[in-house]
Each structure stands twice: as structure tokens, then as C-alpha cells.
Amino acid sequence: MDGVGYLFCAPLIVGVLAFAIYPMFAALYLSFHQTVGNQMSGKWVGANNYAYALHDPIFWQAIRNTLFMGVFSVALGIGLSFVLATLINSLKWNFGKNVFKAVYFLPNVVSAVATSLLFSFLFYPSKEGLLNFVIGLFGIEPVGWFTNPSVSRFSIVLMSLWGALGYNTIIFLAGLQSVPRDLHEAAEVDGANALRRWLHVTIPYLRPIFVFMLVMGTIGSMKRFTDVWLIGGTAGNPGGSLMTVVLYIYRNAFLAGQMGLATAASYLLFLMILVLTAVMMLLNRRKNSMD
Fold first, then answer.
1. Beta strands in the chain (DSSP E)
2. HSE on the CB side for 243, CA within 13 Å?
3. What is the pLDDT of residues 73-101, one digit of tens each?
4. Around Cβ 285, how many Cβ atoms within 10 Å?
5. 40 to 44, 125, 139, 193, 258: CA distances (angstroms)
């Protein structure tokens, strides 16, 4: 009977080995080779691909752009979604709660392609763009949202906020509804007003959700590709301001035909995500131990 359990697990184990474990080790092996075209084998060059990526200014530009857009997307996304969730949760009318949840979650089901097309129209650089038309009514000159290197990264942050705000709000709303009413009643008896209860009861109780949102948001932002590729192309225009690490990997793998360099950059990205996640988890564990 013991062997029957392993037999039922065999398809899953084979699938994980074939489509997860093997590709990881194959990519690691390939990262130590110099390849030509889309070949999956080549000349052994040791750590040269890693050294080349670490000395490539485009790779470091991609890291800076990725971190810049990621920090603002995650910080603003978590903060705004928590405030919205708090406001929705404070509504007394259940129908109103459902309406707001549906409205805010709707952008999450829109594809990245449709979102990019929508914001390309909204952020059109001339006066024909909707946003430039609106700010033009107040005498403000048109802004090159996706054509000015100093502004384009903020435009991507705004676009990503619109798409992810609803999902984050739903997660926080579920957490807010799980906060025990006894905690708020006890704090109210001690003389705490609504703001103090929100700061000293609600937020500490939802710390695991904040950590979850922070970790998942960081991982997602470090893998940013679709929106910057659709808006800025393979060069990350304007002026490379939208070049991200994943876009750098894509360019080297499928345009330059350097699969070894691309896989080396992929493992460097993996190490970055691993370090950032580990730091956040350690800080959270230290905070829990101090409480």
C-alpha cells in the first residue's frame, strides 16, 4: 500500500523534474558557455558571461531602472491599496462595498497589452493625449510621458498602480475583515480614537499581510517586462530609461543570440531576488522576536 502513494505522486514528481528542476540546472550549465545564435551549447568560458554582465553599463542601467520602478510601484501600491481597503471596509452598506470592490478589481483582469494601449492613448505626448489635454486646461505645457527619459519611469509606475491596485485592495480588505472586534473594543475602552485604533491595532495585526504584499510585489517588480517592452520596445526607449533586467535578458537571448550571457544575467537576477526576499524575511522575523 505504501508504494501506491508514490505511484500516484509520480506524475507530479516527473513533471517538476522535467519542467522545473532540469531547466534550472540546464540554464546554469549554459551560463558558463559562449553560444552562437539560439544554440543551446557552445564553448566553455567559465564565469566570463557573469563578468561581462557585471561590467556591462547597460546591465547596471537595467538594474537601476528596475529598482526605481519597483520601489515606487511597491511602496505606493501597498500604501494606496491599504487606504482604499480601509475606506471600503468602513462603509456600512454591503452593496456599496461590493460595487467598490468590483470597480477597483476590474483593471486587474485587463491584459497587459490592453493596459499599455490604453495608457499610450492617455499619455500621448502631444496635446491630443487625454492627460495632456486636461493639464493644458490649466495652462501646463504637454508632458512627454513616454518620450521624456526623466518622466517615462514615473509613467510606468502610474500604469502599474492602476493595474495592480485592485488586487492589493481585495487582499487587504480580506485582512481587515479578519481583525477581531474585541481588539478594537478594548482599545476604544482605553480611550483610543479611530485613528489610534487604525495605527496601533489594525496595522500591527495585519503585519503578515504587509510582509506578503511586500515580498510578492518585490518579486513581481523585479520581473517587469511586458509593459516596458510594449511601451519602449526592445531598446527600453526613451534613452534606455525603460530598460529592465528581464528586457536585458530578452535582448541578449533572442535578438543578440547570446544565450549563455542571457542565462548568466537570469541567475544574477535570481540572486538579487533571493537576497532581497531573504532580507525582508529576516527583518520581519527580527521584528517579531522584539515584540
1. 33-34, 43-44
2. 19
3. 999 999 999 999 999 988 887 777 888 88
4. 11
5. 12, 42, 57, 64, 10
User: Does the domain made of 50-290 have the CATH classification 1.10.3210.10?
Assistant: no
As beta bridge partners, residue 43 has 34
Percent of the chain with pLDDT over 90: 41
Cis check: omega of the bond before 238, within 30 degrees of 0: yes
Which of 44-58, 110-124, 231-245 is least confident? 110-124
Q: Are 46 and 32 in contact (CB under 8 A)?
A: yes
- Sequence spans of domains, the chain: 50-290
C-alpha cell at 121: 492613448
Residues 6+ apart with CB under 8 A from 121: 129, 130
R_g of the chain, CA atoms, integer Å: 23
Q: What is the largest CA-CA distance in the chain?
A: 79
Q: Whole-angstrom Cα distance, residue 165 to residue 167? A: 6
pLDDT at residue 39 in the model: 65
pTM of the model: 0.89
Strand partners, 33: 44
**Chain-centre distance of CA 71, in angstroms?**
9
Query: What does the alpha-carbon distance between residue 3 and residue 24 come to, in Å, rounded to a whole number?
Result: 29
Contact (CB, 8 A) for 159 and 116: yes
Q: Which of 263, 270, 265 has the alpha carbon at shortest distance from 39?
A: 263
Q: Which helix (H) or strand (E) holds 214?
A: helix 207-222
pLDDT at 244: 96
